[in-house]
């Protein structure tokens, strides 16, 4: 996308994009966000245009944005509607760390924050320098309990596990995010379990049928205190997310 004039009024329809815009120093230009956009704290008073899956086109139009950012996941159908209303929209959906870096560069170029984008992308790229070469403990990362779901190796979160020094027990999942059976988790005997959602806890995981035999449960390495947004959002806080995962995984070495 090439814009003749630098956009001043920005609308973000995804929490990770909102975080990126603020990280690039463009927070004061963000005039609309979704109800899920909760970081940084400065975004609290920004106009809400609806939730992530069903934003209000009427509210977006009322804000008279120069550029609307959205993600292709779930929001794909919105693109044609926005363009049909005469609005400029830009779609991003990074699935790897490298794609996140590229996305930050693209957003920076669109809004005139190239230098800030280069700095942020370089900081994220530095994650590879800290990648562990030691033994990789077996890790199970749970994103929902019912159904029980986890991440595959080719997902953004799967890459974070590798960067943090772990071996994903579900590395061969056919999809990036998929259901996994409790029996498979028990058989894989993870040394570390990360609960990346608010629906379960260290205590409830240990109470599941058969899970008391798992090494992570027996050794007290079930972690439920990492902010899920640090793990599940492909944004600037991925650096903190990898650091939090690394701190947990290193306990199993």
From TrEMBL:
Keywords: Signal
A single GO BP: cellular response to iron ion
Signal recorded as keyword: yes
Lineage: superkingdom: Bacteria
Pfam family, one: Peripla_BP_2
Coiled-coil segments on the chain, per record: none
Domain Fe/B12 periplasmic-binding: 9-253
Name of this protein: Fe/B12 periplasmic-binding domain-containing protein
């Amino acid at each position: 996308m090439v814009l003749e004039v630098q956009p001043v009024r920005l609308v973000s329809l995804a929490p990770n994009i909102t975080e990126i815009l603020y990280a690039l120093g463009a927070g004061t230009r963000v005039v609309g966000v979704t109800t899920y956009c909760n970081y940084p704290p400065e975004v609290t008073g920004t106009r809400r245009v609806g939730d992530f899956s069903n934003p209000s086109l009427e509210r977006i139009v009322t804000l008279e944005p120069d550029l609307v950012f959205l993600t292709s996941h779930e929001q794909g159908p919105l693109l044609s509607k926005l363009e049909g209303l005469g609005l400029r929209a830009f779609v991003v959906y990074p699935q790897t760390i490298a794609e996140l870096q590229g996305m930050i560069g693209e957003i920076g170029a669109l809004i005139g924050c190239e230098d800030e984008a280069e700095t942020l992308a370089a900081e994220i790229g530095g994650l590879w320098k800290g990648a562990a070469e030691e033994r990789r403990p077996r890790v199970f990362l749970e994103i929902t309990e019912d159904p029980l779901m986890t991440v595959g190796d080719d997902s953004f979160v799967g890459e974070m596990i590798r960067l943090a020094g772990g071996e994903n027990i579900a590395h061969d999942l056919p999809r990036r995010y998929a259901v996994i059976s409790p029996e498979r988790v028990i058989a894989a005997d993870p040394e570390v379990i990360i609960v990346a959602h608010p629906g379960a806890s260290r205590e409830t995981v240990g109470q599941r049928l058969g899970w008391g035999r798992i090494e992570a449960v027996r050794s007290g390495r079930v972690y439920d205190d990492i902010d899920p947004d640090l793990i599940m959002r492909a944004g600037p806080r991925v650096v903190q997310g990898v650091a939090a995962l690394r701190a947990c995984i290193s306990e199993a070495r």
